[in-house]
Specification:
- The complex is a heterodimer of chains A (about 550) and B (about 325).
- Chain A has 18 helices and 24 strands.
- In chain A, the strands form 7 sheets. A 7-stranded mixed β-sheet of chain A has the order 8-9-10-1-11-22-12.
- In chain A, strand 8 (about 215-220) and strand 9 form a beta hairpin.
- With about 325 residues, chain B is mainly α.
- The two termini of chain B are about 15 Å apart.
- Classes of the chains: A alpha+beta (about 550), B mainly alpha (about 325).
Amino acid sequence: MLRCERLALIALFAAAAADAAPPSDADWQEGRLPASVYEGTPRSGGTLVIRLDQEPPSLDKLTDAALAIDWMLERKVLESMAEPDAGKHPEYPLKPALATDWTVSPDQLTFTFHLRRDVVWHDGEPFNGKDVVATVRKILDPSVRAMHLRNNFADLEDISTAPGDDFTVVARYRKPYFLAFRALATLSIYPAHLLSTSGDMLHSAIHRAPVGTGPFRFEAWKTGERISFVRNDRYWGRKAYLDRIVYRIVPDPAVGFQMLKNGEFDVYLQLQPQQWARDLEAAGLQRALRRIKFYSPNYNWIGWNEQRPWFSDARVRQAMNYAIDTEGIRKSFLLGLDRPTTCHFYLDSSACDHSLVPRSYDPKRAAQLLDEAGWRDHDGDGVRDKDGVPFRFTFLMNADSVFLDKLTPYLQQELRKLGVEMEIRKVDWAHFVQLVEEHQFDATSLRWGNTDVVQDPYEIWHSSQTKDGSNYVLFQDPRVDALIEQARTTLDDARRNELYRKMGRLLYDEAPYTFLYSRPSLDAVKNRVRGIRPSVVWYDFQDVWLAAR
Amino acid sequence: MKSPLAQRLLGTVPTFLGITFIAFALVRAAPGHALAFEGDSALRQGSATAAQRREYRRMMGLDDPLLSGYGRWLTHVVRGDLGDSFRDGRPVRVLLGEALPVTLLLSLPSLVLGYLLAIPIGLLAAARPGGLLDRILSSGVFVLYSLPVQWVALVLVVAASDRGLPIQGLRTEGTSSASDLLLHLVLPVACLTYGSLAVLSRHMRSSMLEQMGQDYVRTARAKGLSEAAVLLKHALPNSLLSMITLFGLTFPALASGAVIVERIFGLPGMGKLTFDAVLGRDMPVLMGAVTLAGVMTMLGLLVSDLLYGAADPRISLRGR
């Protein structure tokens, strides 16, 4: 017995000695990368193999809004004039990239960017301001499926290079809009010489084989198998250390995990919560891998359709809040990994009022609020009713959601105790989105995701967006409208965030959504991967290097 | 004089039109938006407004009347153009051209293997119906038949990866040897084959038993032939005729792919292509897959008729 322990101890020390900086338990628990990841002298060479769970439809940001495309291309293959500074959490201010500097006119309507003169495209052509202009024009071209980007340029009056200076870009807007600058500055720039013949993009080579200016250039895409990139040795900045990045497409989580155990991946994206929290340790991988947990701007919510008789009263919506034990659900169904939020924005942003804590589970308070709102069991059938309408509604959900599969039966049970009947309707994703968009639901749940911390809540909360926007729950409040409109023309971040905090308080009281959680990205990297840094704007691989084995 | 073969081919035209029109109408009638699936109920802010979706529908021609939509699709098909995928903009022809070889690489060996195993199993089982061997073989294939493929595949994955067998994709990166490809095929082909054994071998067994009751078998036995000769020389060839019919019916399955096996083993075949097209309402791809399946079905029937004629001189396409 003692001997065994001693042997185990020796083995432990031997292992610790072999790895110069063993991960501390706290880092492992938190999913933090230890400081040692950023130590040592970087060495060049090697291939980084990354597991990807879903193949993107294309590698074209102009036609597709899939997040995986942004992950693979932004700041790696395609670059923008400025980029979010990943080192400055949680505000992520812009820092120069293809532009060295810029000016904004006092009326906030004219932006002038001065571009680098030493940049070449991956195919060897020189880069200049005409590329920026051509990219914006492409987005504005109605024959291009760029609706998701076109919004940002609705108020653009004109964009051109300065007369006689191809390295200065001037953009003029009709009215001030806080996002206009950031949208233009962080727009991934495409090469004008290839855009001119790219038509609607769908049929051009750069739809699947992008040509950019970034530290990595596209190598190959083997459908259903892998997408690879190689180092750009003509990069204008410090060249990347890695020779190559290979994304292997492995959709099945169980097979992916097996391959992770076999050591086939350097970076494993999207572990399932159970795998991240338990299986890694059970498989004895603590010494071979490091766990990473970080939160991108996203949150899921339950939305209550305000045009339905049951949910038109804020007190009822608040009661629904109190009826759901969000903390209990978080701990049991989500293994405590998701972070609770009450805010529309990125949860660490100063646009959030952090004093607004989630309503705690309180069925008595819920019952009281329902009584106050006039929903009582008048006819004694066990179900609350008001004006002859029984409180019996349908919860619409996407049939693929693992989380909602657990949440909805629980919710059903909780509400039944309160005298509220809830039915569950499951439909497939494509149908689900259509129904939600057409407001054909009583209650539903979705997740909003984004790749930038700065965002405009207009599309989701402004009353004008109940028709063509994403105000699915038909929330209409003139106070919120006014704040959103005012924020749109407020270019000062601190003042705008103050307006958003006010909006947040109104949303908290009106409770059109039951705000739930922000979901973490649960990843793992091999010990030998150094210099890797997760952030809201995902990973950059320019600083990543592989330690000698 | 028209050849009977040409007549048969001509007869497939209305069938083809019927299949594709019904498919077109069904796909168009299905509720839901044509869009890519981001996974677990997530929508990207700024990319999901109703206005954008309407614009998209207009661009994809989804608002055209049904008949004119079908007419346009058909005129393109006649010219050999199956349209472009909504999802990634590539021609459907190219997508099918990528996925079909992967699927055939799996389904052909699995089909051959299935027949190669099922015929002897059926034969042995029929030799002594109700005997011990019959009961062992029959329950064996039924046990296999009832094992869910997801489970079997994962068990195989875990077992195989400990032994160094590849568990994902078709090739190890950088190698193009045939042996590497074969190793990659082992698990998926095994998964695709084991379930088919029950159907094929039972079919073989009952077909053999049917032949064994025939007069010519009694005659063969009466003239003192060994049991092996009776089975192999007389009953077997005749019972294979019905296996040919079965072959005609399983032929279209060759090209339809296997969603689960393809997903688990990361093989981008027809199953994955079709399934993703359904989820994303990618109409041109879906129609391409349906068209291919329709053509394969008609081809399968034709092939089995031809095989029939070759195997049994009494039956001929040319008539008497």
